[in-house]
């Protein structure tokens, strides 16, 4: 019997690189992730609920591009909170408060051990697939003027360097539309940077790990301002 050579994990991850907080996939497409705040829909009045639904419907109808809504549900790690309470217990001089803090710590531990306390994060994924003009060998550029490649096979070199600023501009136009639309619903949004993206993907692919890898952000990875189109 011949043992098949195992494939590295990177082959199953569609991400090619993270540049300036932007995901570049192996097919040449680009992604920006927004983390979104939540609102308690159940506590709203009937009029407020109808206004939110109408604003959300108008937001979806205003889009001329696709987006993804991603909800991450994870078990809440209570250990940092317990450590904070234990530190206050040591510093507390009042005997009565010491007893109350100790009982509270025991209650929190018992409750979290016997119940699944979950935390949810909400993300919106905004994508852009840049059209890349390619001329085959032996053919003139004029002949291939109207031949656009909207994507590439894995392993092909994507000329993102030459078109990166223009593609980022187009992608940020979509980001602005989404953030404005979500703001009308009453939702706050923030763009994830390079470090936040690394942490997010680490937790996705390593669900049992509580610590995240430390990375050094180089100058080329620093969040850059949105490129402005030259008139």
Summarize the structure.
The chain has 231 residues and is α+β, with helices and mostly antiparallel strands. 38% of the residues lie in helices and 19% in strands. It has two domains: 13-74 and 121-210, no CATH class; 77-116.
Notes on the structure:
- The structure is a single chain.
- The chain has 231 residues and is an alpha+beta fold.
- It folds into two domains: 13-74 and 121-210, no CATH class; 77-116.
- Helices cover 38% and strands 19% of the residues.
- It has helices spanning 46-62, 79-91, 95-114, 160-185, 194-205, and strands at 15-19, 22-25, 30-36, 67-75, 118-128, 132-133, 148-149, 189-191.
- Strands 1, 2, 3, 4, 5 and 8 form a six-stranded antiparallel beta sheet that branches.
- A hairpin with a 4-residue loop joins β2 (22-25) and β3.
Features:
disordered C terminus; 8 strands; 2 domains; 5 helices; two-stranded antiparallel sheet; single chain; alpha+beta; 231 residues
Number of domains: 2
- Per the principal axes of the C-alpha atoms, what is the gross shape? extended
In helices, the fraction of residues equals 25-40%
Rg calculated over all Cα atoms: 24 Å
Q: What letter string, H or E per element, gives the SSE order?
A: EEEHEHHEEEHEH
The total strand number stands at 8
Number of helices: 5
Averaged pLDDT: 76
Distance between the termini: 65 Å
Class by helix and strand content? alpha+beta
């Amino acid at each position: 019997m011949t043992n098949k050579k195992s494939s590295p994990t990177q082959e199953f991850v569609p991400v090619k690189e993270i540049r300036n907080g932007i995901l570049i996939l192996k097919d040449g497409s680009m992604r920006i992730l927004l983390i979104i705040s939540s609102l308690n829909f159940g506590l709203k009045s009937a009029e407020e609920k109808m206004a939110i639904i109408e604003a959300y419907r108008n937001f979806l109808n205003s889009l001329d591009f696709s987006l993804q809504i991603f909800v991450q549900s994870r078990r809440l790690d209570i250990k940092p909170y317990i450590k904070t309470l234990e530190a206050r217990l040591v510093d507390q001089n009042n005997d009565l408060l010491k007893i109350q803090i100790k009982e509270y710590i025991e209650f929190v531990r018992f409750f979290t051990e016997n119940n699944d306390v979950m935390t949810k994060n909400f993300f919106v994924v905004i994508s852009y697939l840049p059209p890349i003009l390619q001329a085959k060998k032996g053919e003139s550029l004029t002949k291939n003027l109207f031949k656009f490649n909207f994507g590439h096979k894995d392993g092909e070199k994507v000329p993102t360097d030459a078109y990166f600023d223009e593609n980022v501009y187009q992608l940020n136009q979509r980001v602005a539309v989404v953030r404005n639309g979500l703001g009308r619903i009453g939702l706050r949004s923030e763009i994830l940077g390079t470090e936040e993206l690394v942490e997010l993907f680490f937790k996705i692919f390593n669900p049992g790990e509580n610590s995240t890898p430390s990375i050094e952000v180089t100058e080329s990875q620093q969040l850059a301002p949105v490129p402005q189109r030259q008139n």
